[in-house]
Amino acid sequence: MEQLRKSYHGTEVLRGIDLTVEPGQVVCLIGASGSGKSTLLRCLNLLETVDDGTVWLADESGAEQDVTDPRVDVDGVRRRVGIVFQAYNLFPHLSVLQNLVLAPTRAAGVSRQAARERALALLERVGLADKAGAYPDALSGGQQQRVALARALAMDPEVLLLDEITSALDPLLVGEVLDVVKGLRADGIAVVMATHEMAFAREASDVVAFLADGEIVEIGPPEQLFDAPRDPRTAAFLARFRS
């Protein structure tokens, strides 16, 4: 991301964001509500158009594609950049397995058999193999969020954007979802996660970025940012979680 800017009704929400994410990295975005974290993620998935700046997405050869170009294949970008929201957004009339199979078969042209095998493997990975035939309303919030993660992974994204995926969960269920996120690093998937879970950001991220008023105020490895923040705004924000 280079100098990314976004405004709503004359109010600048993103004010020149620069951020690089490498394959296999977990980058946590922290900051108060309204700091621009969710808007940033939505711009990366092209759910919002940017007003200025560029988002580059490199392919396996290293060639970079400007995904903010208006001529870009939006669906093609979204197949490479998955997103999961705090609202699970599962299709209530489809079983867990059907939720996972739908996008690969309809949007990516994967055979039904291959999509089914991939879906069952993902459900095994997130600890829900026994729920393949269940419907979303029969699952707990933590289980539904793990299904939502598995559904996003079913498209084999190169980048996964996670927008406050634990904020609607009972505290007892947060850990089971975050355990899934920790395992993504080994797959080489780049994860950009907006979160209020400071313990997770400290333990599982490679990079933490603190946003305030639409800007990245401070960015660095978690041990530096949490233990020795350089900006007083970062220190004041983190102090709320220590009290």
From TrEMBL:
Topology relative to the membrane: Peripheral membrane protein
Positions in coiled-coil regions: none
Gene3D superfamilies the record matches: P-loop containing nucleotide triphosphate hydrolases
Residue ranges occupied by any ABC transporter domain in the UniProt entry: 1-238
Keyword Chloroplast assigned: no
Gene Ontology MF annotations: ABC-type amino acid transporter activity; ATP binding; ATP hydrolysis activity
Alphabetic keyword roster: Amino-acid transport, ATP-binding, Cell membrane, Membrane, Nucleotide-binding, Transport
Key word ATP-binding present: yes
InterPro entries documented for this protein: AAA+_ATPase, ABC_ATPase_HisP-typ, ABC_transporter-like_ATP-bd, ABC_transporter-like_CS, MetN_ABC_transporter-like, P-loop_NTPase
GO CC, alphabetical: plasma membrane
A matching Pfam family: ABC_tran
UniProt main location, coarse: membrane
Family to which the UniProt record says this protein belongs: Belongs to the ABC transporter superfamily.
Protein name (record): Peptide ABC transporter ATP-binding protein
